[in-house]
Amino acid sequence: MRPAELDRVTVAEAADRYVELVRAKTVTGALSPASAEVYARDVATLVELAGERAILDDLTGADIDAVLLAFARRPDGRTTRPSGGEGPAGQAGQSPSSQARFRRSISALFKHATLAGWVQLNPMTRSTVTAKQRGGLRAERRALTREQARGLIGAAQEAPGTPPEQGKRRDQRIELRDAVIVLLLATMGPRVSELVRANVEDFFTNDGVRYWRIFGKGGRTRDVPLPDDVARVLQAYLEQERAHAGAPGTPGATGRPDDGKALLLSWRGRRLARGDVQAVIDRVQQRVDPDQRRSVTPHGLRHTTATHLLADAVDMDAVRRVLGHSDLSTLGRYRDELPGELEVAMRSHPLLRGRPHQP
Question: How far is CA 50 from CA 12, 62, 82, 101, 117, in A?
Fold first, then answer.
């Protein structure tokens, strides 16, 4: 039975009380000391990611999603990643088993918090991120809502106008490049592998329209027109930033000979790796209004493209060609449910449009 009054404790206070309770269970043999320390470590990570001064009851499902995905991307010293990217060299994110364990640990904390009267509603029940042993933590609904997507796109479009970070030279600017990455992912939905493999020569103009020749799975190619806003940012990037990235004589330039053709370069002149793209999205997300912000992966932006094109009644075969699917049936996996879409569909029913309202 839940207490009648809510105890608005901070995340740090709740963590301290919960860990004390967990460690007490080792005395009775209900829990092993090793397990208790694992719980304590995971709860300490929650405090770090959520903020020690945040009120536990104020955390929402979206906050929990952000914490879970942030943990999943934390460097794990036990595994390594190739050097040359923009992320922490030699380190990879948490393993799927560690991610699942972390989710179980904080779920146990919030279950106790609900009974103890520290939260009115367990935010874990509103979380859209689930633990999958093989794939790690993933959001059940990957697509951003229209408001969330517009917030991210707006932040990307504003990026070229932001002042350079203090101390950065012209050849170290990456704002336009980051904007290109987010805009291409959010509006055209390429696979992240297709994005990082893209070369400058893959973008061409025909009859005044800018196209991207995308080299996809199975050696198939598709020519997809760029929205005008995306084409303008791309051109600005090519003229202003990319021309200086890793240029000969640039201090620290480490580009390989074959990187010269790449569309997306680090300021040192190296082709970006798949893992670098998530860091770019996260960086742009920091400029999004908190009310519109939700963590998303590159693949989630592919879902976003498919979901909103289909929701806007764009021809299914056209969407299939944009995404590079060989079969229409594949689109079903990329079409996510949007909040309120059924209500909107029924309010604008095609069989009732244009009919006079009956009294």
Answer: 9, 11, 30, 18, 19
Interval 310-348: pLDDT, tens: 888 788 888 888 988 877 766 666 666 666 655 656 666
Name the one residue in this structure whose structure tokens are 């080792």: 26
Give yes or no: 217 in active site.
yes
The CA distance from 37 to 48, in Å, is: 16
- Are residues 91 and 205 located together in one domain of the fold? no
Q: 191 an active-site residue?
A: yes
Q: Which of 2, 53, 170, 217 is catalytic?
A: 217
Residue whose entry in the numeric block shows the structure tokens 């010269």: 260
Active-site hit among 146, 213, 299, 335: 299
Same domain, 98 and 232: no
**Is 302 labeled as catalytic in the residue annotation?**
yes
What pLDDT score was predicted for residue 165? 53
Is 168 among the catalytic positions? no
Are residue 280 and residue 183 in the same domain, yes or no? yes
**What local confidence, expressed as pLDDT, does residue 335 receive?**
65
> Could you say which of 100, 119, 139 is where a domain stops?
139
Last residue of a domain, one of 139, 174, 192: 139
* 72 & 196 share domain: no
Q: Considering only CA atoms, which of 156, 154, 138, 158 is closest in space to residue 146?
A: 154
DSSP 107: H
Q: Which domain holds residue 336?
A: 146-344
Which member of 177, 191, 197, 271 is catalytic? Answer: 191
Q: How many domains does the chain have?
A: 2
